[in-house]
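Lab notebook, design round three. We kept the backbone fixed and only want residue identities now. Task for the bench partner: fill in a sequence for the structure below.
Input structure tokens:
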């Protein structure tokens, strides 16, 4: 993450929760305005497969804070 991006993130995290949500919604809306590339058939099939596994209870979701911590530990260990 660039220094500028890190500074923006830190400023955003200092905002009250409601303002953070507004910022997220504005960023997502801006992305939606961009001309996204359509997903290929392979990605659509993978999304459907994963969704079906989740709906059937075959997979256990991992909360985002735990995923973020795992990634952070992996990055810090050089792996």
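Proposed sequence:
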């Amino acid at each position: 993450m660039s220094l500028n991006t890190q500074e923006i993130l830190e400023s955003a995290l200092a905002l009250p929760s409601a303002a953070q949500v507004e910022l997220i919604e504005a960023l997502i809306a801006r992305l939606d305005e961009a001309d996204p590339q359509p997903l290929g058939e392979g990605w659509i099939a993978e999304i459907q497969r994963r969704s079906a596994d989740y709906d059937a209870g075959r997979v256990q979701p991992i909360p985002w804070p735990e995923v973020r911590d795992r990634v952070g530990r992996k990055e810090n260990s050089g792996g």
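Keep this in mind before ordering anything: The radius of gyration is 17 Å.
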